Amino acid sequence: MCGVVGFIGSENTAEILFNGLKTLEYRGYDSAGLALCQNNSFHILKAVGKLENLLREMQKNSSLAATMGIGHIRWATHGAPSLANAHPHVSNDGKTVLVHNGIIENYKELKADLSAKGYRFSSDTDTEVAVVQIEDELKSAASFPQAVRQAMQKFRGAFAFLIMNKDNPQMLVAAKRNAPLLVGRGEKGMMAASDVPALAGHVSKFAYLD
Ligand code: GLU
Hints:
This protein has five helices and eleven strands, in the order βαββαβββαααβββββ. The protein has helices at 13-23, 51-60, 107-116, 127-138, 144-154, and strands at 3-9, 31-38, 41-48, 68-74, 89-90, 96-104, 157-165, 173-177, 182-185, 189-193, 205-208. It is globular, with a radius of gyration of 16 Å.
């Protein structure tokens, strides 16, 4: 079990994501990471081990003023705990970035199909297959959310995703099947997370996604 947190709004995104991840530490993890969207570009920070290691990476990048971002604490199921396997993972074209909780059971066959189409992989995770699958679906889908829907139909297992795409800088997509994921709305923004404490202080209303 691990945790995901996402925020889109006007507050200090990096701090909100980090504090949200702190509240999810009880779930157990071996590495952590953030993707921050600022001026239509993604900044990815990752660290193996405790969240304090991620905090050091954040302090080196303290000038980032993102208005949207996603965060993750990983409990490795596919691939060793390492920087290469830590989330967020990025599509081959660099346009889509994703964090993932859970397992994609059929990732090997999806990876073989995507590799045959020429896509490359730089981690051992099932997660990277998901972001590349979405990249491939974007070629035929009418929209970013539609590409995620198409990809979700191909995944087997239990999982929750938070996803951003450079061509849709005002949008954070949350998708899940058989894994916990909440969405919340506050005055300064909207959030999604694996558990209620991560939303505390930032939202006035929240709902569990079916
Ligand atoms: N299966 C993914 C991985 O090994 C996600 C694990 C998790 O839920 O943290 O990276």
